[in-house]
């Protein structure tokens, strides 16, 4: 079955950096677009960045120039490098794949940025 497992979250000061990882199994990892989303309590889960099978990336405006999404298909791993973090980036971060007409999500990893 499809599984996505995120890691790399934590507590960092404002201006710091983190790199999130997401390992995907149960599907042909390199054949699907992938995305990172984030959610704060009481709000919707929002797209942060996405990457196609051809490594074309898109970002929400608030993270452009600070975050970089990448993938290593040989390792079945999706990454999100987050630099110059701001308190507003505090959220649970999830990776997602849309596979065979279903959305699959990981369990999430908490990112907390202190001011």
Report on this structure:
The chain is mainly β and 115 residues long. The protein has no helices and eleven strands. It is globular and about 40 Å long.
Overall shape: it is globular
- What characterizes the major β-sheet? 7 strands, mixed
Number of helices: 0
Oligomer: single chain
Helix share, percent: under 10%
Quickly list its features.
115 residues; mainly beta; 7-stranded mixed beta sheet; globular
Briefly say what this structure is.
With 115 residues, the chain is mostly beta strands. The protein is 0% helix and 55% strand.
Write the layout of secondary structure elements.
Layout: E1 3-7, E2 10-13, E3 18-25, E4 34-39, E5 46-51, E6 57-59, E7 67-72, E8 77-82, E9 91-99, E10 102-105, E11 109-114
Parallel strand pairs: 2-11
Antiparallel strand pairs: 1-3, 3-8, 4-5, 4-9, 5-6, 7-8, 9-10, 9-11
